[in-house]
Specification:
Elements lengths: L25 H18 L13 E6 L5 H12 L3 E6 L11 H10 L4 E6 L4 H6 L5 E7 L5 H15 L6 E5 L6 H12 L3 E5 L15 E3 L2 H5 L4 E4 L15 H8 L3 H4 L7 E3 L12 H4 L7 H24 L6
Parallel strand pairs: 1-2, 1-3, 3-4, 5-6, 5-8, 6-7, 8-9
Helix pairs in contact: 1-5, 1-11, 2-11, 5-6, 5-11
Amino acid sequence: MTASQDTAPSRPFPHRHLLGIEGLTPDEIGLLLDQAEASVAQNRQVDKKRSDLRGLTQINLFFEESTRTRTSFELAGKRLGADVINMSVATSSIKKGETLIDTAMTLNAMNPDLLVVRHPHSGAVELLSQKVACAVINAGDGSHEHPTQALLDALTIRRRKGRLSGLLVAICGDILHSRVARSNIHLLNTMGARVRLVAPPTLLPASVERLGVEVHHDMRRGLADCDIVMMLRLQSERMHGAFVPSIREYFHFWGLDYDKLASARPDALIMHPGPMNRGVEIDSAVADDIDRSVIREQVEMGVAVRMACIEILTARLRHPERVS
């Protein structure tokens, strides 16, 4: 792959924005994953930069702090040749009382080509997308969705296991407050995997079985014969009240260690979206197991997936003749 080669998607993506996984078809998810595959090798080269998005502007607007997601979106845009602007909400007019709609109108007047938005309130990114003329990627909105995290998780699994269909995936921990869990449930169900949720009752949404998942309250039973064990952190910043008795007791019953992991398949992969709370939801030895943990690989796949999403959503600007 050369720096000047434009790897346009092989077929059109029918959506102007990427606001969530819910509603995407298996073919649309497959398109995003296949496009990301092309970026993995590029990101391992010495010369990682292309000029596909030269002249296009990407604005990263993060109302919540993030290290992995914002950095990977910044790297993704720059490696594709875009002009990338990171807006600091802490020092912007938003902190001075500007409404979300006013912010959208202001940004729209600057004629960006892509907005990447993270917001603490569910639905805020979709509202903003209705007020701008450019493409919008949801980088996480409240407890609603985090589509690119689910895509990078899926890419990691597919590269290791060769498939998604038929796999048994356990998502464990704070399901109630997790947008990562929701996006993964939608994606895995759509792609033919089986999903188990393993958590104490206080950390599960009401009637969560309606999403097409199995529910377990015991870690060993929940992990039995699983191909993938995906751990989630306790999101204390979203908790208002006592959801667990103590951190020590939580780890005893719900933290992933080798004793509980023994219930899963011998080749089960260990995943975590980060940031990890070692000794809370996962034991350090398990997290760092070079044979089974793919946590570092998830971070690497994050850049490739975000490059794919950026390429696909800007294809109509770069190649209008290829987009119906």
